[in-house]
Amino acid sequence: xxxxxxxxxxxxMRRWASGVTVVTSAYEGRRAGMTVSAFLxxxxxxxxxxxxxxxxxxxxxxxxxxxxxGVSILGASMEAxxxxxxxxxxxxxxDRFEGSRVDVRPSGVPVLADAAxxxxxxxxxxxxxxxxxxxxxxxTATAVRDAAEGPLLYFDRAYRRLAT
Length: 164
Fold this sequence. Notes:
This protein has helices at about 5-15, 60-65, 80-85, and strands at about 20, 20-25, 30-35, 40-45, 45-55, 70-75, 100-105, 110, 115-130, 130-145, 150-155, 160. The protein is of the alpha+beta class and about 160 residues long. It has one domain: Electron Transport, Fmn-binding Protein, Chain A (Pnp Oxidase, Chain A, Roll), CATH 2.30.110.10.
């Protein structure tokens, strides 16, 4: 049964603008990825980030097995990649990486080559919370690819860009 505040929270959170990322992982040659806006920096010492993934996500299953994941921070021109990795309009078995240029990191984690920035992470902790798992990852490598392009933002159920 849905929580009585679920829809109210959804309406409230639409007022929160967030950046858009694609979280990826790979295990035994199979890769998975999904669009995620629940991403944040936790610590600089050691460099640690957090992502929130649905407990049934294939990406979560891969990172549990491999112990590694990637985060690609999307630039303003990457709406199509965000939509594809969210699964909108795709059959369940579709390759979400189709049409994307990918760099494979030493851990085996794929990151999007056209992303504005990326992080490669080693899983340091998993915390179950209701329908989601909070994944803490120690950053093992990171780079900014395009500092000139602004971020892709999501606000009130639509993609947005920073006004310059």
